[in-house]
Amino acid sequence: MQPPKKPSPPESKNYGSYGTQESTAAAAAELLKQQQEELNRKAEELDRRERELQNAALGNAAIRQNNWPPLPSFCPMKPCFYQDIPVEIPTEFQKTVSSMYYLWMASTVTLFLNFLASLAWFCVDTTAGSGFGLSILWVLLFTPCSFLCWYRPMYKAFRSDSSFNFFVFFFIFFVQDILYVLQAIGIPGSGFR
């Protein structure tokens, strides 16, 4: 009789890994290499986009054409300014600049309505000629001057974050507000109806 065989101990199996440490290290190195290549591609893409944006910004300054005031093509005069709020103004200030543009347009319409009221008053009372003449002056003077003296500095200030342009805007806008209060009072013979 032979003595019973002792069973051999089972081989320990490592269920947590599929290979040796060398193959795990090689896989990790390959993964790092792929990630690094992907990061390099993304960095090159971002650099390319940045160069395109810089070229577009520099190119637009030379290529962009003035578009304000909008004039028909057959008009011998050409627009004087370039104005594009969604392109030039940062998004957080676009609503403010648009509101100020609408305020400027409202003041222009108000001056024109003042002119029409003075014209109507002059048609009824011919002694009101000086008021009618002054209303013409106010329309011709305040419309372009308000655009150039407070709207454009405000537009430039928000576009380039210029403290000087903010100062000019606030000073001129304050003076014009005082003049509008005087217009609202309607001093006789001043051209304000």
From TrEMBL:
It holds the Pfam family SCAMP. Belongs to the SCAMP family. Residues 1-20 are annotated as: Disordered. Keywords: Coiled coil, Membrane, Transmembrane, Transmembrane helix, Transport. PANTHER family: SECRETORY CARRIER-ASSOCIATED MEMBRANE PROTEIN 3 (PTHR10687:SF6), SECRETORY CARRIER-ASSOCIATED MEMBRANE PROTEIN SCAMP (PTHR10687). GO terms for biological process: protein transport. It is found in: Membrane. InterPro entries: SCAMP (IPR007273). It is a multi-pass membrane protein. The chain crosses the membrane at residues 101-122, 128-151, 163-187. Residues 1-10 have a biased composition (Pro residues). This is Secretory carrier-associated membrane protein. GO terms for cellular component: recycling endosome membrane; trans-Golgi network membrane. Residues 25-56 form a coiled coil.
